[in-house]
Amino acid sequence: MTLNKLTEIKNSILANKKFKKIKNDDREIRLILKNVDVIDPYSIEEYIANDGYLAAYKALTEMNRESIIEEIKKSGLRGRSGGAFPTGIKWSFSLSVEADEKYIICNADEGIPGDFIDRILLEKDPHAIVEGLIIGAIANDANKGYFYIRKEYLAAHKTIEKAIFAARKLGFLGKNIFDQGYDFDIEIRIGAGSYVCGEETALMESIEGKRGTSRAKPPFPAVRGLFGKPTCVNNVKTLASVTKIILNGAESFNKYGTENSKGTNIFSISGKVKKPGFYELPLGISIRELIFGICQGPLAGKTITSVLVGGPAGGFVSEDKWNSPLDYDLFHINRTMLGAGGIVVIDETICIVDMCLMFLEFGLEESCGKCSPCRYGTKKQIAILKSIIEGKGKPEDLEELKNLSEHILSSSLCGLGMSTSFPLLSALMNYEELFIEHLNHKCRANVCKCGENND
Amino acid sequence: MENLKQKNFDLFTAYLEKYKKQKDALGLLLHKSMDLFSHIPQEIQLIISKELDVSMAHISGVISFYSYFSFEKWGKNVIDLCTGTSCYVCDSKNVVKKVKEYLKIDFEETTKDDNFTLLSAKCLGNCVSGVSMRINDDLHENVTKDNVIEILRKYEVKPYDS
Amino acid sequence: MIKVNLNGTEVEVEKNQTILEVANKIGTYIPTLCFLKGVNETSQCRMCLVEIEGVRGFKPACATICSDQMVVNTNSESIKNAVKFNLELIAGEHTFECWNCPREEDCELLDLLRYFDIEHKYSKNRNKFTAPNSVINGCNSIVFDSGKCVLCHRCISTCNKTTKKDVISFHNRGENTIVKPVHNLNISESGCIYCGNCIQNCPVSAITESNSVNEVLNLLQNTNKKLIVQYDSRIKYFLTETVADYSENLAGLFQEVGFKHSFDLSVGEAVHDFLLNDEIVKNKTVIEASDFSIVNYLEIYNYDLLKYLSKVKSPHTLQGIFLKQHYCKDLGLNAEDTIVVSILPNVSAKAEIEREEYDYKSLKDVDYVLTFRELLRLFRRVGADVNIYDYAEQEKLENINYLKKINYFTKNQKTTTTLLGEEVAVDYIVDINTFAETFKQIDSYGYLNFNFSNSFEFYSGGQHHIKSYDLNQENVYWKNIAKINDYIADEEIEITDIEKIYKKLLNALPEKTMLYTDFQKRKILNNK
What we know:
The complex is a heterotrimer. By secondary structure, chain A is of the alpha/beta class. In chain A, about 40% of the residues lie in helices and about 15% in strands. In chain A, a hairpin with a 5-residue loop joins strand 6 and strand 7 (about 275-280). Chain A has a five-stranded mixed β-sheet. Chain A has helices spanning about 5-15, 45-50, 55-60, 65-75, 85-90, 115-125, 125-140, 155-170, 200-205, 235-250, 250-255, 285-295, 330-335, 350-365, 370-390, 395-410, 415-420, 420-430, 430-440; strands at about 105-110, 145-150, 175, 180-190, 230-235, 265-270, 275-280, 305-310, 315, 340-345. Chain B is an alpha+beta fold. Chain B has seven helices and five strands. In chain B, a hairpin with a 5-residue loop joins strand 2 (about 110) and strand 3. The longest helix of chain B has 15 residues, at about 1-15. Chain B is elongated. The mean pLDDT of chain B is about 90. By secondary structure, chain C is α/β, with parallel strands linked by helices. Helices cover about 35% and strands about 15% of the residues of chain C. Chain C has 19 helices and 18 strands. A five-stranded mixed β-sheet of chain C has the order 2-1-5-3-4, sandwiched between helices. Chain C is globular. Chains in contact: A-B, A-C, B-C.
């Protein structure tokens, strides 16, 4: 598959079809979402017509491992699954590890409730992710890749399967890809309904055919990962971003964003706003601008009380902090993780204390059960919070909840255990008055039955 | 009916042929069994155990860990009702209550006539269209406590509240 | 060599050591629960958390490799609080019946609870004694109690490392996680060989041997049955290790408990050797199973190798037959009213004696097997003086000549023997050859019937099961395999093949089977 063939396909498509530019909002900057709702996801030809697989070709012919990693470092891209680890640095770990076999995995187990961006990309621009995986494989010296797609994304199974098949047929995957002497192929694995399998070590356990329980780190996946070999796990958005960075250069990406959080991110906003949906915007846009500007604020006659950023691993951001920029420094400001960019907006009809209970119950059900702080600690938190919601709480319960949360945070084995308490801690920090109201038998949103006589 | 079941069994063993001694193929085989039989019968566990050289206890441990693998046969129609954050904010709690009352079952249970199995999905990824509910391969959006029974009626043999 | 600062003390250590290894070397205490060197190193109990300067959060000492100039703190207030909190959570989900528990003396969890002075504050809303998630899965040999389990994973790792058969696994998720054999099956139907290694490695008593102490005690105290005890001589090592100032008065202790007679296993071993030699001459190839779990293993997983295994019963059962069928009259006992109790370190023996062939003329060869630590519990329950409390008592014990009560058998027609360091008069002399002949005459008397129907299909003939697959069948999962007799006898084996066969068997057998349910072995494994 030479450059000429690629150009041939591109020209033959462009001769008959014009591709429009789409935006969900004028303020959007569509770098990663360029092909979404524009091309036919089942057509590799249309993808090629939009500069598809040029980046992978470039990575193989004009660049080497070091220069690819350098370009990604320069772009400032950070892992888009929530961990936000600089991708360039993550990939550079593979340079110092020797092994007979290395792997790269695309983490398509987007399990955080409220996030649906990975789904959009998987369903509507699957080739961008495949190409990103190819580039990642070259940079990490991996010859085998995996897609780990969650079970719930039925359409994504089909689009990715077809994409891999089509790419293989044209010689972009398999032996001697692009006729450049490099071997790389991808296998699909499907999840089976476990949130914790979105965590990279649990994901690797799942691919190995075991229970999806987290592993302790160290050893890190870059040293000992899948089947004991050096492995790199990357998010869907990260890989899609990689494709565009290698295609258009690091500057095309790092000219957007803030000091420590470069580039654009795709935010998915749902809940009580006028215009929910997904928007690709530069990192650093303020919460206020996003929720009230682009999403046009609350529903008619209602007031927004809180913005939940980062899902069950994030926190409730109160009005006084809505001017904060949405980037990876949010944690240092608000102790709220940006996460993958999924945002749920709440108004006065929703009770935040009740939502805290929902998150804890979610954390308990999805806990893998390996370490006692997560599997038992969450249970204790739920018992106390339930008694508060039923109007039987005591003032010292709030202190106890804080202590429990801090303990679970510091002693848990993996990120899930650590982050289960984040929503509760942020609610206790920003909305303590709501908890005290519940102690005094009042639920502002009229959701909890916390009256004196339990009415 | 007998032939159909035997046919599924033959399909399974044909699929299994590709994965002799490949321990990490367990997930793929369990998914296949769910597709063909709506559960993973003990005979299939035995066969997988022999071909992949993994112990039975390991297999049952894996099945019991994941929400979409089941030891007991699921009903004809599988309801995957989303209980994620966005759907919760759109009042999924009341939809759940309505469905449980109507079908008289709890999550992970099957109706007595084997027609419906109710599951709780932790976010179907369809967050901007009210409460989402998947039944088999059909995705239903904007489900409310008022229209959910109507949606279920399309899949039932006879009503559950008669 | 690199330098590491541990709690203010600087030490020079070799590279690639974990913080825990370094701490153990210099005697600094770091609590552990799930760690078992070389067997289970999953860092999941979160007890060994330490603080490292410059690193955020706590790190597990068992998995973190020391780096040069690392500064480690293992006992700050925040670490102590974290460990205490973790223990409170575990205690809140644990079944406590320590006074009645086989591990009361050496429970790793209890030691931690004592050391950190746990208040048990999460026990408010539950049944004080039984944990909310207590599920018992047991048989006549091994019992699993999930209420006591701390989910450390040591048993699963052990089963994997020793037998390589992964008979047990974690099931379910989160707080519902439980250690179980195959879903919906009892442990006895799941391919367990009762080697007992999991019992040895469990830090608490979530897995124990099946309890026979109550039944034996009941027989001793509340019935007119006469009990005879026969003990494996290794009990002496166990008691010396476990009991401080052990009085070495085994015979007297048995007497005090109420056993009519006590014997060691020398007769059984003599008969066993006799029959074994006979079998070697006849069959030309015999390999002996040192533990009954090996027989179980071959029956379930490698029945094609059973033909190389000796069919002679184990020493204690042979001696049991001897005592009941031949010696009762001489002892002045009625065989029907006699109960034989074996004291052995093997857990598999408990399942062994329940098999059909260990039964002659409707009398069981051996009625009960007690492990060493069950015997100790028995002594304590009765209030027998296991320890020396004061020297006057010790003198009194020495003067009462319990030793005369012991009966001893010898092949060599000697009239005295040395027992516990003293010359003792022998009460009875038995010609072992005559008695051993009687074992040979009656066909199944001294021999095992290997149980082929016990086999797991897919290891021993799964092919024909697949062909007869019937989706409508609900209940019958483990079908019987036919062709039992075709395998035994008829084959002529050369002596030169023995080495090959021995190697083949060694490769098939589990790495080791439990020999001691005692301190010693566990201490070595725990690396204390």
